[in-house]
Amino acid sequence: MRISVSIPSLLRDCTSGKVVFELEAQTLREAVELLPVMYPLLRVHLYTESGQLRQHVLLFYNDDNLAWLDNLDLPLREGDRLVVFQAVSGG
């Protein structure tokens, strides 16, 4: 299934200038795992060296934070969205 992926404009240099693009996957888990495969430069911004999602990165599947989901093996449907939010702090 083809879904829409949105990333923050701060990361567009990792995706050849794209802030919205499509990704082909059957499950949510597959889509999440495919992001750094399609765009290897995203890996360092999304994941720690041990492969965990960075604390300041939030991934949303439609309106649900992935951290709230018990299972990522959800089948994707037409119109689904994956959104990457990157928290920014400063003073």
From TrEMBL:
SUPFAM superfamilies per record: MoaD/ThiS (SSF54285)
Highest taxon, organism lineage: Bacteria
InterPro entries: Beta-grasp_dom_sf, Mopterin_synth/thiamin_S_b, Sulfur_Carrier/Prot_Modifier, ThiS/MoaD-like
Protein name (record): Molybdopterin converting factor small subunit
